[in-house]
Design brief:
alpha+beta; Immunoglobulin-like; 6-stranded mixed β-sheet; 5-stranded mixed β-sheet; 42% helix; metal-binding; signal; respiratory chain; cell membrane
């Protein structure tokens, strides 16, 4: 049955309106489009600018495709110009080659500048001292160590509002990817490497973090809670863990590192130099944002001698 022309146009406009409303109304539910930190905000701006620039080409092409199909369709009384020998138009060639080239060059400049500006190991400008958190990817859980506070947690991350966080990231498992969408882009967690990522939360609230790589059977459960609080609440949280939680021993870490899922856990202390031991036990010097000297200084500050490090290696083999 052939629908009336007015009804076909109404259906088309309704579908277009639905797509526009659905795509704009769900931005609050899309984490990367609802940033709460300076890095994530800059990344959202980059995505929006890139999308708008691409739309300069994509939208006219889609519209012209529909117009051409409609205008040059086979029907009686067709009034479109018939030009079988037409082959070239300098004006059109300049338009459909010049505009994409200009957009690509613009994207290249924007992307290059953003790449340097958003270098993950670049410290954030702030009047507050950065908080260091050492992140270890395990199968299938996340271990967070707070070296300055002397505590550790599993699948729970708490940070003060408006304080830059210096994440030092490694893995004692297959490669994974550390990602908190509303704070910033992901950073790979790899065994034998210490990666650095600076992020910051500008608002208080609870957010979602996860591993963004396939790492085996239970990879889908490798997510963690992120909470941004006031400095006072953060200090109380640390004090509560130090008072009420058990210590993480080397034997406990060895058991924790075995492939398994885990609920949220907390530890009042952890072995000194545990993060450095995890990085160096794979006998590689590769790192990103953490120099070999910094690693040695961390080990020295933690009072870890060469013999103790060797004992740790033997204990975890």
């Amino acid at each position: 049955m052939k629908l009336p022309k007015a009804l076909r146009w109404l259906a088309s406009l309704s579908m277009l309106a639905f797509l526009l409303l659905s795509s704009t109304g769900c931005t609050e539910n899309i984490a990367v489009l609802n940033p709460i930190g300076p890095i994530a905000k800059q990344e959202r701006e980059l995505m929006l600018i890139s999308t708008l620039l691409c739309c300069i080409v994509i939208v006219p092409v889609l519209i012209l495709t529909a117009v051409i199909i409609w205008r040059y369709r086979d029907r009686k009384g067709r009034k479109a110009t018939y030009s079988p020998n037409w082959a070239h138009s300098t004006r059109l060639e300049v338009i459909w080659w010049g505009i994409p080239i200009a957009i690509i060059l613009t994207l290249a400049v924007i992307t290059t500048r953003s790449t340097y500006a958003l270098e993950p190991s670049k410290p954030l400008e702030s009047h507050s001292k950065p908080l260091t958190i050492q992140v270890t990817s395990l199968n299938w859980k996340w271990l967070f160590q707070y070296p300055e506070q002397g505590i550790a947690t599993v699948n729970e991350l708490k940070i003060p509002q408006n304080v830059p966080v210096r994440f030092e990231i490694t893995a004692d498992s297959p490669m994974n990817s550390f990602w908190i969408p509303q704070l910033g882009g992901q950073m790979y967690a790899m065994s034998g490497m210490a990666m650095t990522l600076y992020l910051q939360a500008d608002k208080q609230g609870k957010y979602w973090g996860s591993g963004a790589n396939f790492t085996g059977t239970e990879f889908a459960k490798m997510y963690f809670d992120v909470e941004s609080t006031t400095q006072e609440d953060f200090d109380q949280w640390v004090a509560g863990i130090k008072t009420n939680s058990p210590a993480l021993t080397l034997d406990g870490y060895k058991h924790l590192a075995e492939p398994s899922t885990s609920n949220v856990r907390a530890f009042s202390s952890f072995p000194e130099g545990l993060f450095e031991m995890t990085v160096t036990k794979y006998a590689t010097s590769h790192n990103h944002g953490v120099s070999g000297k910094e690693m040695q200084d961390n080990m020295h500050n933690h009072g870890v001698s060469g013999k103790e490090m060797q004992d740790m290696h033997m204990h975890n083999q």
